[in-house]
Amino acid sequence: MKIILLGYMGSGKTTLGEAIAHLKNIPFIDLDSYIAEGENLSVQEIFSSKGEIYFRKKETLYLKELLQKEEDFILSLGGGTPCFGNNMALIKEATSLSIYLKYQPKTLARRLIKEKPHRPLLSEINDADLEDFIRKHLFERNPFYMQANYIISMDNLTEEESINEIVKIL
């Protein structure tokens, strides 16, 4: 059982993935952390020193590596992972348990505003422009996100309710 959590940055993929992995007693993997470990650099350092194109190529390479493993796990993707290369096709081929954690732009902006310094794609965005930036990004990414096997509208759910919704799918 490979469970893939996808969605925009700040949608809780890592937090929920860790909680569900603990409940189901299976390993949890955060793709960004896996890449950082493999490259010996943080994602932010990779973006700033080698650029986004380099990062996206490595992201696909590490995603393939993980999806080819035999063991069960929960994998939290980076927000852009499904949108580059043939990543969504690789995910769909490897599992029928891809779950899109869907939020409205206003909610994401509220969740992300404090995290901007740690988010390479957001660090230079003015606070007043954040929601519009997210809205544009979601417009571009939604065709990929919507290919997930399951979509959960997250805006009005507590963390516990979110976990329960995901567990129902499994």
List keywords for this structure.
five-stranded parallel sheet, alpha/beta, Rossmann fold, 5 strands, 170 residues
The mean pLDDT is 91
Taking the sheet with the most strands, its summary is: 5 strands, parallel
Strand order of the largest sheet: 2-3-1-4-5
**DSSP summary: helix tally:** 8
What are the segments in which pLDDT stays under 50 over at least 5 consecutive residues? none
Overall form: globular
From N to C, what is the helix and strand string? EHEHHHEHEHHEH
Q: Mind telling me the CATH class?
A: Alpha Beta
Tell me the CATH topology: Rossmann fold
Class of secondary structure makeup: alpha/beta
**Nearest-angstrom radius of gyration?**
15 Å
Helix content: 40-55%
Strand content: 5-15%
Distance between the termini: 9 Å
Total tally of structural domains: 1
Please name the CATH architecture.
3-Layer(aba) Sandwich
Question: Count the strands?
Answer: 5
Under CATH, the homologous superfamily reads P-loop containing nucleotide triphosphate hydrolases
Subcellular location: Cytoplasm
Pfam families: SKI
Binding site for Mg(2+): 14
Subunit structure: Monomer.
